[in-house]
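Q: Convert this sequence to structure tokens.
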Amino acid sequence: MRPLEPLQAPVDPVEALRRVGFLLERSRQHSRRVEAFRGAVGVLRGLDEGEVGQRVEAGTLTELAGIGASTAGVITQAVRGELPDYLVRQQEEHGGPLVEGAADYAEAIIGDCHLHSDWSDGGSPIDEMVLTAVELGQEWMVLTDHSPRLRIANGLSAQRLSQQLDLLARIDASLGDAFTLMSGIEVDILDDGALDQSEEMLGRLDLVTASVHSKLKMTKAPMTRRMVAAVSNPRVNVLGHCTGRLVTGGRGTRPQSEFDARQVFEACAEHDVAVEINSRPERCDPPDELVELALEIGCLFAVDSDAHAPGQLEMKAYGAERAQRLGVPLERIVTTWEAERVREWSGRR
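A:
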């Protein structure tokens, strides 16, 4: 994974809008602002050839539903061959490195086992997530939209997941050798450790990330049994954000769940399940001492973005910094592996 180079004039208006949206997401700015620029991209892509330039000259861009003053300004300057002022400000304020000192690890991370699209609670379509990943120098990703019980996140029923698999196959086929898009799910770990999707559907996926999203205050013994049961399931490949904690951000904070981490991580090591290093700043999960424990026990790791928008894909830099600082060997991070090796690993179970 590599950072994006700043755009220079001349720039296509769609690319200018996309980059603004990316930088707003990357810097965790308000979702409504992001939606304005992402939505404007869709408007421009739906126009006939030449209409954008005509509307710029006529001053009628804002007559289009979904184009406001800020987005019209970006489009107008881009059409006229200028680097839009709004884009310049975003690149200056939010275009620098996310972290210092982890370039080697960040560059080595070429994949992602945990990210979402607008099929569940993500903000962008699958093709936009793929395009941004390619621009960031990734080689593969696993789409892991939510499972059905997580209704607040528009989790996928078996029927919707089946429809998504058909779409993923078509997108992946269109990419040739340039990029690999794998099928997956972030499946909810139910109270008894069962998985929130049918065995048949889980068997059709390339990779399964399993996470606890409910009853996070369950007492230690049953939570431990719940998590051990999940990672012992041969369909599970990655244990997602294992403590469920929130340390900052708009959703407030949340303490970590109580469980016997040694017992859970020993089960992960026994069953070849990777422990996720969730890169989202509001999660930073697991905490450092649990990463060190999993490292001591011999676990594999997955440095994942848990991205819900294209601009969040680069947040793996935060996880890369933690992995490097805590001494996690690159060889034990599955998101540094080639796509074919990942498929072989995930398919063994």
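DSSP finds 14 helices and six strands in the chain.
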